[in-house]
Amino acid sequence: MTGPMRRISIGIVVLGLAAAVAAWFLSAPKQIGAADLPAGKGDPERGATLFAIGGCVSCHAPEGAKGTDKLVLAGGRAFKTEFGTFYAPNISPDPDAGIGRWEPVDFVNAMKYGTSPDGGHFYPAFPYTSYARMQVEDLLDLWAYLTVLPASDRANRPHDIGFPFSIRRAVGFWKLLYLAPEPVVPVGEDLERGRYLVEGPGHCGECHTPRSPIGGPDLARWLGGGPNPDGPGTIPNLTPGGETISGWSEADIAEYLKSGFTPDFDTAGGSMADVVENTSQLDDDDRLAIARYLKALPAVGAAE
């Protein structure tokens, strides 16, 4: 090899190594330390309200569970997507099968950064893109509530995901595109509570916002409805540009979230029935705050 060719070859190798090192750091999971948390252990009573709006039961309780059995968050539900099948994990306080050995900071890192206690990426089937907008104090309250729920020793089932989606480190690049704590829609102070509930703990955008080819939320069509992300059918448009609730008043929406009855006396069905069961536990002010935020959304028309 001649001198110039050798220098070019060395340059290519150096650039390749530099790119690999940069990619490794860019895709690294983010997390905070325990010293970064506010003082206090969290209030389980306040956490119960966040548990309701977060709908933790809907994904993590065993399918078909009734009554207090719904509080046993043993996981196991399957969510079929175009990227593979994800299985909800056990998030009960069991020290081996569940999250009983986690510290509060582990929970905050999972919810805000999608990072596991061992420093790996969680897949975004876990809706941390929404929970990233939650206040740390609220997360600690929710954590306090989870620790007093019944434990289950049901083992987690591994996700069924093929290559290349099985490469967890690549989730770091996905997060660079889609994980941000900022609110989606700018609103006045009077609508901030509703925005927080919808965009954060309520994670309504996870189902009601269409997704890009790589599974990221299309914020330009925020809450504009689209294909069901984990099954057949479509999810309704919640904006004033849709046909489902655009004609409803704020009071109509609040009543639906409380009783499940629409203005024409139809009832919530499918997965929305579970959501209503959760929102029925909120107080009237929070349900009205959600309704006011939805009525103030930018209109999103039918998808082309």
Automatic annotation (TrEMBL):
Signal peptide: none annotated. The keyword Oxidoreductase does not apply. Keywords: Heme, Iron, Metal-binding. It comes from Nisaea acidiphila. InterPro entries: Cyt_c-like_dom, Cyt_c-like_dom_sf, Cytochrome_c-type_DH. GO terms for molecular function: electron transfer activity; heme binding; metal ion binding. This is Cytochrome c. Gene3D superfamilies: Cytochrome c-like domain. The lineage of its organism: Bacteria, Pseudomonadati, Pseudomonadota, Alphaproteobacteria, Rhodospirillales.
